[in-house]
Amino acid sequence: MSDLPNCPACASEFTYHDGIQCVCPECGHEWMPGDDAAARQDDVLEARDAHGNPLADGDSVTVIKDLKVKGSSSVIKVGTKVKSIRLVEGDAEGGHNLDCKVEGIGALKLTSKFVKKA
Known about the structure:
- The protein is built from no helices and 13 strands.
- The chain is mainly beta and 118 residues long.
- The radius of gyration is 16 Å and the shape is elongated.
- The chain starts with 15 loop residues before the first strand and ends with a strand.
- The model has no long low-confidence stretch (mean pLDDT 85).
- Belongs to the YjdM family.
């Protein structure tokens, strides 16, 4: 039996210690042991899809527009389903705030305004 706390984001009991922080393998949430989740309300990332629906780590989304992959000749077609997204802080260049893996393309970042919740 593990003495690690359950994940504060999804309540999973399958957490593990990774150096100085705890990690949840189910939702990807990372936190410092002993942190009070209520004290870190400002650290919570928020993203909304093209229709205004809130997105969370682990959600599946569908692409609503053909997207060219920068640095490649590949295109992500409309209707492509992307599973297990992860919210990240948007970068300054394009506001890419979703980390994901697209089948046939690989790992990349997407902007939430070009997807809808599946």
